[in-house]
Amino acid sequence: MRGAVTAATLTRPAVVFAVFTLVYLLTWGGHLTTGDGTIKLAWATALVDHQSADIDPGPDVEYSKYGIGHSLAAVPAVVASRLVQRLGGPRIEAPAYMLLFVINGALWLALASAYLRRHHGPRAVLVTLALLGLGTIWWPYTKLDFTEPLVLTTLFGGFLFVRTGRPTAGVAVAAFAGLFKPEAFGAVAIIVGWWAWIARPAGRQWLAIAGLVPAIAIHLATVVARGTSLSGGYPGELFSTPLAVGLYGSLFSAGKSVFLFSPPLIVGVMGARRFAETREGREDLVCFMLIFVTQLVLYAGWWDWSGDDAWGPRFLIPGTMLMCLPAVALANRHLVVALALSAGIAVQMLAVLPSPLNYVLLVRERQMPRALLFDDGQNRVDFEDVRFNPRYTQLAGHWILLRHMIGLPPSPAPGDERRAGTPLAAVVPAEVWASRARADIFWVRLLRDRSPSAGATGE
């Protein structure tokens, strides 16, 4: 009884939010990680400082091509930074903005707990939350300033409103996902269609779709203000990848497989049949699967189907996390859960200790020569290798970074590289690996920067 009470307490949404906020803060980087994030923060700054969409303070007008939702979510961080400055403190836009992703990560898990508790016992919910929060790609993205996690939380919040009989509020909340990424309006349409299927509305009940109006109006206003297309403006970026390549890469490749980067997804797929034994579970599974499959097919044809620079297949984060939820039906399968959770934590630790982007940026920034097989000459490791070649994937690269971090760097033995292939550890000098093998955790950096040895060496 005592264990059951404890489990029930731990799965309360407020407790889940507090616990995962603390966990994610322990591995938080506290700094901007992408150029895209910098642009989105710049739009928030422009909105606060001069109520404009112009992010270029110079004479030339320059607009962000991204949805305004991300920048609106960053406005509180800019306001907080301005208040701190007025009190004589430093500018803190970047770390305050990056807290958004920690809060969002914990918030979605709190929402997932509220959803799962409706029909499943506390122990099963607790196990599932561990799978979701620690064993999936969700954890590293609390350190990165990408939009997809925000899309998921908004969509799922709307889904919960609809599921609990408040369709107007649900449609309105879900629709704001389209302000983060215009293509997310497709997932919003799935939720609206799913609601129509399960509720069979009639007469005035159809007025619930009026919840779409605020988000669509804001999106159209930003389109007019910037003079961009409805998609936000992606000149020269096309759906040019053969569908088979994108599907294979997203599902089964050595470097970007959604199952490889989120092992609990395997448990979710395995548990789908049992999850669907109830009417509500069956209905919800249809919604989750439609979102996952739609995103999979949509992004498989995108020119940059892998979403780089990123950790794993970032475009599929919303569908991946939704399809992990049916893992709750197999929470009593201890061996399956233990294997998935252990594998998932091992994968995510490779990303949350160093920066999740350290290796892909190394590939982008440096020549990484490797011997040609069965011939003279050299080639270089490129993104096709990162995507498809097990020897050069992100997991392999981050394993090398981790070994340097703990003082056990690999020592590739000389061999016949023209027959067996060049080891990844040998494509750049050991000192280059070591320079990238720094803990990307704010409190570790603070301790390192304040240490006497750091001051003496100028680090």
Give an account of the 3D structure.
With 459 residues, this protein is mainly alpha-helical. It folds into two domains: 2-28 and 106-352, no CATH class; 358-439, no CATH class. It has 25 helices and two strands. It has a two-stranded antiparallel ribbon with strand order 1-2. A hairpin with a 6-residue loop joins strand 1 (369-371) and strand 2 (378-380). Helix 7 crosses helix 17 (317-324) and helix 10 packs antiparallel against helix 16. The longest helix has 24 residues, at 93-116. The protein is globular and about 75 Å long. It starts with a helix and ends with a helix. Residues 454-459 have low confidence and may be disordered.
Topology as a string of helices (H) and strands (E): HHHHHHHHHHHHHHHHHHHEEHHHHHH
Strand content: under 5%
Shape: globular
Low-confidence runs of at least 5 consecutive residues: 454-459
Helix vs. strand class: mainly alpha
Q: Quick one: how many beta strands?
A: 2
Distance between the termini: 53 Å
Q: Quick one: biggest sheet?
A: 2 strands, antiparallel
State Rg.
23 Å
> What is the count of DSSP helices, taking H or I runs of 4+ residues?
25
